[in-house]
Amino acid sequence: MDFSPDFQGRNGKADPFEKQGREGASRDTIRNKKQWTKVGSVPQGVVIRAGGLACQRGFRNEITDERRFMTHYLVVTAIGTDRPGIVNEVTRHVSGCGCNIVDSRLGIFGNEFTFIMLLSGDWNSMMQLEISLPLRSQEWDLITMMKRTERHQSLQYDIRASADLLIRDEPGIVSQCTQFFSEHGWNIQAMQSMTLEQQPFNLLKISFQLNLAREGEVEGSQTAFAEFCRQLGAESFEFIVNRKHA
């Protein structure tokens, strides 16, 4: 790093260092470098050159050392034709970039697989993955999406519930169920549905994991869910409430 004084000064006058010559000025400048570091400032007219870039006083590097060594989080979704070994190739590349797989979900839909991961790592690892994964995805014939996120902070709910129903498979059933829970104040934490192919018609099995913050709505929700399922003509249904114990 080269500390070079501006010999013209701010008003066009010769700098006092000029009397000593450039070599003497450089020695004096370097001798005072430690003092500048302590007070956190650089005298007017001094230009700091680092790595070939001139950085004048007041310039702040956007990527600080503290940020570089923080733990960052990234959500990655990969979609592509299911084939043996594809999940291994993705996870090996993630690990090779220095990222850790915190959580993951894998599902097969038709002939396609969907792989969702929550990754953690330092700034360099995340940048390496964000740059390299789209290129590797083209080689693997995958569609990938990435989004930075924060560490998940679970909301504290006093009441949890699970709801299951088996019903004739028709368009709009899942939408009606999610609308019902939304209207009754339930937060859907997880949902899974599966079509059971059989004669004379297919059945749809749906399971929900729910959270509720308001105690007073529990009993009403159980009664309303039973009535809702009967109106839909469900083959069977179940609503189980789990209260948090103090």
UniProtKB/TrEMBL annotation:
Residues 1-28 are annotated as: Disordered. It comes from the Bacteria. Pfam families: ACT_6. Residues 12-28 have a biased composition (Basic and acidic residues). This is Glycine cleavage system transcriptional repressor. It comes from Aeromonas veronii. The lineage of its organism: Bacteria, Pseudomonadati, Pseudomonadota, Gammaproteobacteria, Aeromonadales.
